[in-house]
Write a structure and sequence with these properties.
It contains 4 helices and 7 strands; from the N terminus they run βββαβαβαββα. The protein is of the alpha/beta class. Strands 3-1-2-4-5-6-7 form a 7-stranded mixed sheet. The structure holds iron/sulfur cluster. The site of iron/sulfur cluster has 13 residues, from loops.
Length: 164
């Protein structure tokens, strides 16, 4: 399956917990003021590649803890995002995902992607709430959500670093 990406970071230490393969999706319609990745906004920018290319790179790196779907907006390419997420889960990797949507806004097909997401960082970037002390998120309105626990408990459960 084709995916339009802005770029790949095969070993990232800043896009979630541990060593992660970060996939920067191309395309976002939000235009948050102060967005750090404005080059990812154009829906026809970046480049098209096959998801298999990414999946075979995941297979080869035994040091990875997981993958991170980021961007850009991964939920604008749900099928490709889901294919990557499912493959990652099959390899025993965790899946983190950044989105400009809130957890509550994600319904329909988005829920199918959430089936394969462990941690969701939700909400758009709000420059007035920007805080450099925050880990893994840019502004304090964004939440680091444990998806499975939030679904089970029917309320937002923040992700907690085990042993942290
Ligand atoms: S949702 Fe993310 S990528 Fe899109 S404009 Fe906002 S900060 Fe940038």
């Amino acid at each position: 399956m084709q995916i339009r990406i802005a770029g790949l970071v095969p070993e990232s230490f800043v896009d979630g917990d541990g060593i992660r393969f970060a996939i920067f999706f191309q395309g976002c319609k939000r235009n948050c003021e102060g967005c750090h990745n404005p080059e990812t906004h154009s829906l026809d920018g970046g480049k098209l590649i096959d998801t298999e290319e990414i999946i075979s790179a995941l297979k080869k790196n035994s040091l990875l803890d997981g993958i991170t779907l980021t961007g850009g907006e991964p939920f604008l390419q749900i099928d490709a995002a889901n294919e990557l997420a499912r493959a990652a889960k099959n390899f025993g990797l965790s899946v983190w995902c950044y989105t400009g949507y809130t957890f509550e806004e994600l319904d329909g097909d988005a829920q199918k992607l959430l089936d394969n997401v462990d941690v969701l960082i939700d909400g758009e970037f709000v420059e007035s709430l920007r805080d450099l002390e925050l880990i893994f998120r840019g502004s304090s309105n964004q939440r680091i959500i444990d998806v499975k626990k939030s679904r089970e408990q029917k309320k937002i459960v923040p992700w907690a670093l085990i042993g942290g």
